[in-house]
Write a structure and sequence with these properties.
The chain is mainly beta. It is built from three helices and 16 strands.
Length: 265
């Protein structure tokens, strides 16, 4: 009889942590419906039975701890902090081991923002999807100009300094060491106190506009060497326009060495 009674379905359970009341009439009706009961059986029951489903609570700090562990891996070796963090959708959950399933990509975008869904798993089953939002800061040593710099000048280390900054405030391509300035020229001006970026720097020109260069034209059987007037600044292994001083014609060539350009056809 005990085993038979345990198999009676009295309806769905309440949500985790909530209470459901089962009325006496419903209980008696479900029991009497069973055919195994003798006709003279007497059933007694309280007027109402209350069922509370066991549960566990998840704190925002638990989610934050998981997110911080991921960020620590993504920015290993760097100084960082979460400036703002919030989770929406938290509630009571069924008992069991809680695990999180995060998106495979970085949690932090290029501007330091956090905005993604976090799947909450219990017993390898997804029970909820949380919304995580926030703002992170990652700090690095960044090169700054101590004085204003003009376009075309060669950087002098004494005119720059290092300061730790949140790289998300500066955007991509910041220069993080003074050694990166060596053998470079400024292809754009930099204001005093401005962070230096790789877009400010370029390799020095091998030829300059107005230079007289050696112009070499060759094929399998023939090699011609003459002089040319460089019509624009040129980098190593880059195309540049040159005026052939012998013919007066403008040609294009690849800068191969200081004052040496090889004609392309």
């Amino acid at each position: 009889l005990s085993d038979a009674l345990k198999k009676i379905d009295v309806g769905p359970s309440p949500k985790p942590g909530q209470i459901k009341a089962i009325d006496k009439k419903k209980i008696l009706s479900l029991i009497r419906r069973e055919r195994y009961l003798p006709e003279d059986v007497r059933i007694s029951s309280p007027d109402r039975i209350y069922v509370k489903r066991s549960s566990q609570l998840l704190a925002e700090s638990d989610v934050r701890q998981f997110v911080e562990s991921r960020i620590r891996t993504d920015f290993k070796g760097l100084s960082w902090e979460l400036i703002r963090f919030e989770v929406s959708g938290l509630e009571a959950y069924p008992t069991g081991k809680i695990e999180f399933k995060a998106p495979p990509e970085n949690m932090v975008d290029r501007k330091g923002r956090l905005s993604f869904f976090l799947d909450l798993m219990i017993g390898q089953k997804s029970v909820d999807r949380l919304t995580v939002k926030g703002q992170a800061a990652v700090y690095q040593n960044v090169v700054h100009a101590a004085v204003s710099q003009k376009r075309g000048t060669v950087p002098v280390r004494d005119q720059f300094y290092i300061e730790k900054r949140n790289i998300f405030d500066l955007g991509e391509g910041v220069v993080t060491s003074l050694s990166s300035l060596e053998n470079k020229v400024l292809k754009s001006g930099i204001r005093k106190g401005e962070a230096v970026k790789t877009s400010h720097l370029s390799d020095p020109y091998l030829v300059n506009k107005g230079d007289i260069v050696t112009l070499v034209a060759s094929n399998h059987n023939l090699r011609i060497v003459t002089s040319g007037l460089c019509l624009e600044d040129g980098y190593a292994d880059r195309l540049v326009r040159v005026e052939n001083l012998s013919s007066g014609r403008e040609v294009r060539g690849i800068v191969k060495a200081k004052s040496r350009v090889e004609v392309v056809y």
